[in-house]
Amino acid sequence: MDELVLLTGARGRVGRAVLEGIGDAYEWRLFDRDPPAEESDHEFVVADVTDDEAVRDAMADVDTVLHLAGDPRPEAPWKSILTNNIDGTQTVYEAAVDTGVERVVFASSNHAVGHYETERKPDIYRRDDDYLLDGSELPRPSNLYGVSKAAGETLGRYYHDEHDLSVACVRIGNLTKGHPPIDYERGQAMWLSYRDCAHLFERCIEADYGYEIVYGISDNDRKYYSLERAKEVLGYAPRDNSAEYTMGGEPKENV
Ligand SMILES: NC(=O)C1=CN([C@@H]2O[C@H](COP(=O)(O)OP(=O)(O)OC[C@H]3O[C@@H](n4cnc5c(N)ncnc54)[C@H](O)[C@@H]3O)[C@@H](O)[C@H]2O)C=CC1
Ligand SMILES: O=C1O[C@H](COP(=O)(O)O)[C@@H](O)[C@H](O)[C@H]1O
């Protein structure tokens, strides 16, 4: 419990999934540009990740940063992406090095590699297709938002090689609460359940690594992202699988 974790973007969907799953496991410092929606037992810093003084101050005594803050919209305009996702992420890495943070876990995205699907869809989203990405592939962003995620991964590579910062980039698939995305094959292939999300980020806090890129998805039969690296290096053990649900989101055991 003595690990102090800074959670940027704490008010968001992924932040809520993390706190729902492992909120009792660590001491947290929450960070978001929007104030907390409800009372919280955790310290909350209301600031922008592009404000380097605020970010440095928020990193005092922090061991691990889970950096989630950013514009999550695949269609986000370049100005927002440049500011929130690229400038903000560089500010976080730089402050982490300056303040002695041990590791940064970066919320990357499936959109960093989205164009690997272009010549293979829709078969790639189906269980009998054996094509797999394993995290070692070069980025092929599907949009400018995906470019910002590839930039965040490359920034992490630099801060690891130059400053020995431990960095894990999690290419999150599609976080959906309670069931996989409904009637959406791509979403079913890359579903990440809330409990697997919390578990994966916990493993990123606990495991030892230098620089890693892993896929943040549940163990979906339809997956085209390999989970071997996450299992081997992080000890990731997902419990959910979109194949256990109908396309309408009903558990098959109930049908
Ligand atoms: N939800 C998903 O399925 C996926 C999410 N991701 C990534 O995970 C991260 C979190 O995503 P979500 O929780 O879904 O997004 P969200 O929009 O629900 O939460 C993001 C949070 O970050 C905050 N934020 C944005 N820009 C900020 C800034 N400049 N300074 C301080 N706070 C700022 C927002 O106020 C918001 O509370 C994002 O980086 C997103 O790109 C990646 C793939 C899939
Ligand atoms: O990075 C992200 O990806 C997911 C899945 O992408 P989609 O284009 O299939 O919806 C998206 O839901 C999420 O908002 C975004 O941050």
From TrEMBL:
Gene3D superfamilies hit by this protein: NAD(P)-binding Rossmann-like Domain (3.40.50.720)
Catalysed transformations (reactions): D-glucose 6-phosphate + NAD(+) = 6-phospho-D-glucono-1,5-lactone + NADH + H(+)
Binding-site residues, NAD(+): 84, 109, 145, 149
One Pfam family linked to the record: Epimerase
Quaternary structure and partners: Homodimer.
Database matches in HAMAP family: Glc6PDH_archaea (MF_02046)
PANTHER family reported in the protein's UniProt record: 4-EPIMERASE, PUTATIVE (AFU_ORTHOLOGUE AFUA_7G00360)-RELATED, NUCLEOSIDE-DIPHOSPHATE-SUGAR EPIMERASE
Name recorded for this polypeptide: NAD-dependent glucose-6-phosphate dehydrogenase
Lineage: Archaea, Methanobacteriati, Methanobacteriota, Stenosarchaea group, Halobacteria
